Every structure is written in structure tokens, then in C-alpha cells.
């Protein structure tokens, strides 16, 4: 392979983004320390290429357009469109890839398809969006192959309630039926840790834990909802539970939980938490959205951009729009 030194250095981000995507799928967390070296590398390469190579207004315009990806990504992160790791990955892509890199393998020049705009980060983002469109089809096919046919088969998958302790995403059900705004499973884990109970205990004795009087006076740090093998600390004290069902001012202690913690628990409200707990304690299987982080299609989009180039531009060219 032949390429300039800046373009070869940019390839270092590919395995790093692959690891970040894998880690985000497994535990929904990516260490912040991963991004700092690549932010520094991106800023350094911007200065290197402008001072030593380009020195043109075209380069500055393309770099400015690329950096516009950052505030756009921030807006999507702010409204909850994707997570913090997705936003940080977008920022690095915008810094590292303002213009098209060039790689020569034998007689082949990569990327194969280049846009007239010439901003490579935009190509990565549009490729990622196209890649994300294929996910519902893959999810539906997976469900169909396992014998699961439902109106939810393209947006979620069924799991047993005991599997929720290590699942990611959010519930697709409320007591009223299907909903895309169900309880976030990270928030569920935060609630369980705060109370000092396991999911198994909650499912075995729902009426006991629905009584807010069984919330101990000294609760635990809820953490961030990540899957962990650590034991949930035993509560310091717990009143004698009442087994009979009853009407309470604060069922499950949901309002106290959100008042007590220094977090929004991923946008959870007392009503949403109560609805989610009612669903999982009344059924043995529930539908969840896998909630695949956008960093996964972003990685796929980067691989496609480095090799095939801009898929949207190629499609538009094929049908005669450009």
C-alpha cells in the first residue's frame, strides 16, 4: 500500500473505532481516554496538511464543512438521538477526515468513488446512515429464522424477563401495550442497585417491592446502569415487607428513586419506571429494542468510505441524478 504519512496515520483510527463499537455493544460504555489521542492527532494533521501540503482556500472550506459535523452531532446527542460515545466518535471523524485520503493498492486507487464536495467525513456519515437502514431488515430476518413473527419483529426482539439484567436497550411495552418509549434497561439496573435487590428477587416478590415502605432508609449508589459482575450491596436496613397488594402514594418507590439520585436515569420518569416494573413483573417474556449504538454503523460507514467511497453519490450517479 502506498499513501502519504498523514493518510497512513489516519488508519490508526480504524482498529480503535472497531474496538469502541464492540465494547459499546457489549457494555454500552467506551472509556473517554480512547478519544483524546485521536483528537490531538486530528488537530495535528489539520495543521500539517494546511501548512506543509495544501495552503489553499479549498482545503480550508472543506475542513470547515467537515467541522460542521460536530455541532450537528451535538444536537443529536442533546435530544437523545444517540449516546455520548457516538458523539465523540463523530467529533474524531470530523477532525481526522476533512478531505479524502488516498491509498494505492497495486493498481487500485482507494476510495473508489469520490464526491464533488470532497469532504470525507460527510461520506462516512452518509454511508453510516445507509448502513443503519439495513439493521431493521437484519433484525426481522433473525426473528423470522427463530420462529418469531410479530409486528415488532423489525424493531425489537423478545427476551425472558430474567435476561433483562444483562440486556441493553429499552422495553417496547407498557401496561397499555406497544410503545417505543418504554423503560431504559440501564435505568432499571440503576434502580435495582439503588434499592439493593437483584432482578431475580424483584421478579419473585413483586408485591413486596411494589410497597415503597420496603425501600431501605440507607440506599446505595445507583451507578450508571452498566452490566457488572459486582454484587449488589445489601441495604443497611429494611422494614418488614408487606406481602399483600395495596395502593400506595409512590408505588415501587419510583419518585423517591429519581429524587434521591444525582442523575436523570436516561430520561426516566416515575410513571415510566412504574410502568416498566409493572410490565416485567407481570410477564415472563417481553419485547425490547436492542438499541444498537450508532457507533456500529459509523464504523461500517468508515470501512465502506475508505474502500468503496461514497455509496450515496455512487447510487445517485447510477440513476443519473449527478
TrEMBL record:
Q: How does it sit in the membrane?
A: Multi-pass membrane protein
Q: Which domain of life is it from?
A: Archaea
Q: Which residue ranges does the record assign to the Preflagellin peptidase C-terminal domain?
A: 283-311
Q: Where is the Prepilin type IV endopeptidase peptidase domain?
A: 11-106
Q: Does the keyword Lyase apply?
A: no
**Alphabetized InterPro entries for the sequence:** Preflagellin_Peptidase, Preflagellin_peptidase_C, Prepilin_IV_endopep_pep
* Parts forming coiled coils: none
Q: Where is this region: Disordered?
A: 208-249
Q: What is its main location?
A: membrane
Fetch the Pfam families from UniProt. Answer: Arc_PepC_II, Peptidase_A24
Q: Which UniProt keywords apply?
A: Cell membrane, Membrane, Transmembrane, Transmembrane helix
What GO annotations for molecular function exist for this entry?
aspartic-type endopeptidase activity
Matching entries from Gene3D superfamilies are given as:
1.20.120.1220
Q: Which GO terms describe its cellular component?
A: plasma membrane
Where does it live in the cell?
Cell membrane
Q: Which positions, given as ranges, span the membrane? A: 34-52, 59-79, 117-138, 294-316
List, alphabetically, the PANTHER family matched: PREFLAGELLIN PEPTIDASE
Q: What is this protein called?
A: A24 family peptidase
Tell me which species this is from: Salarchaeum japonicum
Amino acid at each position: 500500500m502506498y499513501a502519504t504519512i498523514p493518510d497512513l496515520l489516519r488508519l490508526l483510527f480504524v482498529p480503535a473505532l472497531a474496538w469502541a463499537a464492540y465494547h459499546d455493544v457489549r457494555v454500552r460504555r467506551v472509556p473517554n481516554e480512547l478519544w483524546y489521542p485521536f483528537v490531538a492527532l486530528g488537530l495535528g494533521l489539520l495543521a500539517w496538511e494546511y501548512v506543509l501540503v495544501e495552503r489553499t482556500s479549498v482545503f480550508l472550506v472543506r475542513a470547515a464543512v467537515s467541522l460542521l459535523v460536530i455541532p450537528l452531532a451535538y444536537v443529536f446527542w442533546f435530544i437523545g438521538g444517540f449516546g455520548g460515545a457516538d458523539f465523540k466518535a463523530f467529533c474524531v471523524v470530523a477532525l481526522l477526515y476533512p478531505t479524502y485520503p488516498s491509498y494505492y493498492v497495486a493498481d487500485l486507487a482507494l476510495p473508489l468513488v469520490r464526491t464533488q464536495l470532497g469532504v470525507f467525513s460527510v461520506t462516512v456519515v452518509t454511508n453510516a446512515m445507509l448502513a443503519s437502514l439495513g439493521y431493521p431488515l437484519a433484525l426481522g430476518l433473525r426473528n423470522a429464522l427463530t420462529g418469531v413473527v410479530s409486528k415488532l419483529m423489525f424493531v425489537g426482539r423478545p427476551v425472558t424477563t430474567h435476561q433483562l439484567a444483562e440486556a441493553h436497550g429499552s422495553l417496547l411495552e407498557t401496561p397499555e401495550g406497544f410503545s417505543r418509549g418504554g423503560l431504559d434497561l440501564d435505568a432499571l439496573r440503576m434502580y435495582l442497585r439503588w434499592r439493593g435487590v437483584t432482578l431475580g428477587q424483584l421478579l419473585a416478590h413483586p408485591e413486596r417491592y411494589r410497597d415503597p415502605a420496603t425501600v431501605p432508609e440507607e440506599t446505595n449508589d445507583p451507578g450508571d446502569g452498566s452490566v457488572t459482575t459486582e454484587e449488589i450491596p445489601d441495604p443497611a436496613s429494611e422494614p418488614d415487607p408487606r406481602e399483600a397488594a395495596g395502593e400506595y402514594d409512590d408505588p415501587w418507590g419510583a419518585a423517591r428513586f429519581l429524587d434521591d439520585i444525582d442523575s436523570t436515569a436516561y430520561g426516566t420518569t416515575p410513571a415510566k419506571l412504574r410502568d416498566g416494573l409493572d410490565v416485567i413483573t407481570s410477564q415472563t417474556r417481553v419485547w425490547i429494542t436492542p438499541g444498537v449504538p450508532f457507533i456500529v454503523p459509523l464504523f461500517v460507514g468508515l470501512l465502506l468510505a475508505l474502500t468503496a467511497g461514497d455509496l450515496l453519490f455512487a447510487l445517485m450517479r447510477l440513476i443519473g441524478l449527478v
